[in-house]
Amino acid sequence: MSGFQLNAVPVLSRTSLDRAEHLRSDEQALKEGWAQAKLLRMNKRGQVRIDNGTVVLEAALTIAPERAPEAVFLGVDGETHLWAVRDDTIEGTLADLRAYGSTLELDDFGTGLLSTAIALLNWHDKAAFSAVDGSPTTSANGGWSRISEAGHEDFPRTDPAVICLIHDGGDRVLLARQHTWPQGLFSLLAGFVEAGESLERCVEREIKEEVGVDVREIRYLGSQPWPFPRSLMLGFAAVADPDQPLAFHDGEIAEAHWFTRGEVRDALAAGAWGSPTGATGGEAKLLLPGSISIARTIVESWAAEG
Q1: Which of 69, 170, 252, 292 has the fewest Cβ atoms within 10 Å of its own Cβ atom?
Q2: pTM for this structure?
């Protein structure tokens, strides 16, 4: 049973958004499309206005007669251009992508729209000056690059990170809790890929640093964008010896335990942490991440084996 695969596509990887890359550099097409375009307004907390659980897209012309310089082109819905802009003045009922499955209801199109907007706008917030020459930058190519005064072009940054389900080759899985998480909330181990490091080596290093165990039989499972602020999560599974002592070397992990497949199944049946019908703390022994995380998909896939 150690060779399990993902039994579903992670939520944020299911996007059906047409990014229409060919339009990004076509300034005339973008200018003409603004008249019928729809605009997503998002504040710095990643929140958007919702109506009955769905994201509100406003007519771009009601916001500005011409394209705002810092608006980012997300793609198209049929012939309609879709844009996003940072706006901290939005009011009404607000929600962010983390509320998926609770107050926010999204289809594959909506998840792609929000995850792309969050990642792009977060990058623009940090890219006002060129990392190469230090001069101010301006948005270009529909918001998919920035060009400095000296002519250097920067592109949206994505930080690769690994996330790994550690199991014993049988019916036990190792889950961990960070210090800042609520009591009872456990998840997979994860960490950012360092310079000059392979994904597999990153899995080995991060797990050794965080819980002190050695892993083998590292296998790639799948990936998912994680725009908080701009990561790509690369999912893996690996085997470890449950008799090897746990040691929390880097101070990030508060506790970690081996759980049985039955315990994990019971926790999954109780619902995701923070969902209105799921576990909300209390005396629950094990709570698991929400549905938008690839961690949830990986755990569900492992639990379904056998």
Answers
A1: 69
A2: 0.92
